[in-house]
Amino acid sequence: MRLTPLSSESLKENVLNVCRRIAGSHRIIAACFFGPRVCGYADETSDVHILLLLSGYRTGLRCHLKPLDGVNAFVLTVDQRIFERDSEHGWLGEFVAEKVTAPYEPLINEEYLRRQEVKVKERIVWELCENIVFGSPELCRELLIKPEYFMYEFMMRRARLFPPLTYSFLNMLRRDLRRKNVQSMMNGYLEALNNLTEEKQITFSNGYFKITQKLIDTYRNQKPRLPVFLRSLQRTMFLHVLNVISKMMTPLLQDQEMFAKSNRKIEAEQLIFQLEEPEGFLLMPTPLGPVPLSDETTIEDFVRQTVPSGTTLDIRIEQMGGVLNRVYLIKYRKNHDEQKVVVKRFKDWLGFKWFPLSLWTLGTKAFAVFGRARLEREYAMNQFLHTQGFPVPKVLHISHRERLLFEDFVEGENLVKTIKRIVSSREKVSSEVTVIGEVGGKIAEAHKLGIAFGDCKPENIIIAEDGRTYFVDLEQATRGGNQAWDVAEFLYYSGHYVFPIFPSDSAELIARRFIEGYLEAGGKKETIRRAASARYIKVFSIFTSLRVLLSVSDICRKMGER
What we know:
By secondary structure, this protein is an alpha+beta fold. It has helices at 9-23, 36-39, 80-89, 110-135, 148-161, 165-172, 178-198, 213-221, 228-243, 246-262, 299-306, 354-360, 371-387, 415-424, 430-448, 483-494, 505-520, 525-531, 534-540, 546-561; strands at 28-34, 48-54, 61-68, 71-79, 104-108, 144-145, 202-205, 208-211, 282-284, 291-292, 316-321, 325-334, 337-346, 395-399, 404-408, 412-414, 451-452, 461-464, 469-471, 478-479. It has a five-stranded mixed β-sheet with strand order 3-4-2-1-5, with helices on both faces. Helix 6 crosses helix 10 (246-262). Mean pLDDT is 85; it is low at 352-356.
């Protein structure tokens, strides 16, 4: 039997007659075709799938199977209000609304269906952006989002919550059908994205969307909502309820049979991995071009990508230390010049090495523990501070999957050496002390940008050969963090280099010059006063003498009150 096209006037008329009989006295709001015949993977035995929306339909939701031109018409009949609630709020777990997120062909009231399609896709975009903001609070500002991300992420989430849908998605994304079906679905997503762009919730440039600060503030200021995973659970419960109605499963079982005919070698457990990976459409800008979150570049891959093909490589990898991270220095030759790149591998701090650090700052400072969060913070802070002209190492590449960050190596001297010279010298060299004031000034500049470094030890500061002060290891840096902690950590940790038998005047000199530089650059006196708090003295008392801590604290208190 030949497959009757949906454009056939006789088929449309017969379907309309079926819809009118089902509607009875109820007013028909809209109707459309969906499923395999619209997407292009149907065979001659495939049912004709129709979504029928009625006004005042007390049954709410019902399936009808009616004979139609030698096949069956599967009619999903829904009350208008229920359909709109599902579109706007996911009231039925998007079981109904998803029919207009996939390709469909209007039969009655095309304008209404288009409005509802855009409405549900706006909500999908809104919720997925919310997930990005709360899941990656620092990285979200830097991400470049391809519009296809929202379509593929929605599919992936639906497939994970309700695995039988995977067959439908894979059928419609078949190689010979993908382009047509993707374009059909993306039209609605692009309209939804354009609406959010007009509202200044997101911006669009060079083919990518970016989340704005306005949208971030909107999410953070809204009333508490169910966590994302609970909302997903809520929707899953609705789907399990719907699963007991066998008729609703009929189209999905047919999709499974169609997929199995041409994909017999694929195991059911592997189905989810056949879908397009959404993280490939979330990208992070780098000097070498945007890098997707799905990137799995290794150290060797990075060198091969940055060195011209055919060049003989003399690669040396040296470990630079690191207790809580693995840090490497890569040396290789490019165009006869030696190149140096620092590579950090971010590990989760879940073992014994993390335990002393958590005890050390208990009740005073909370550190980011998971490697992914620290990787994202360091990348995002470096990117932001670099755009502000702040001296930080340039990020060259990021491998999100491998948790690797590639940065320029900064030639220079660690500030610890400067502090040790000040401490050990009887005659305090003015140039050395001046550097401390400059460091205080740079920290104040970062604080004025709303950034707190989070780990502001002298060993994380490099005085470059050109005299500029570089801040490295920004994995604990955040927007709106505890700026008093930065001041306290720098000053009290610097006092660690003053031996107990030495007088505390060196630590006092460092504190005064640092605070002078900090205040001259616009830092707040309140931040200096807060750094004098006993809660910070307690933290550093395990390795800095109490005499030094009290002297520095007294200077913070006095200079913060002037």
